[in-house]
Amino acid sequence: MWKEENNKLSRTFKFKDFSEAFAFMTRVAILAEVHAHHPDWSNTWNKVEINLTTHDAGNKITEKDRNLADAIDKLVD
């Protein structure tokens, strides 16, 4: 589940291996383009950490963040 703290929505996703994690990141990148909203994220082997905040709104959580988080969740459901 997404955690809401420090004006960010954050979630860590874990996968079987690096290839699965990277494939997930590719799908998230396409979603980010569609939503015109891009995450702050990192990848370490099988783990992808995503932080969402709206920079244009003063680094606050907005509907843009919630909408992208919902779309990302649908990739792993």
TrEMBL record:
Highest taxon listed in the record's lineage: Bacteria
Cited Pfam families: Pterin_4a
Family: Belongs to the pterin-4-alpha-carbinolamine dehydratase family.
Record has Cell inner membrane as a keyword: no
The EC number(s) this enzyme carries: 4.2.1.96
Catalytic activity: (4aS,6R)-4a-hydroxy-L-erythro-5,6,7,8-tetrahydrobiopterin = (6R)-L-erythro-6,7-dihydrobiopterin + H2O
Name the UniProt record assigns to this protein: 4a-hydroxytetrahydrobiopterin dehydratase
Keyword annotations of the record: Lyase
Keyword Disulfide bond: no
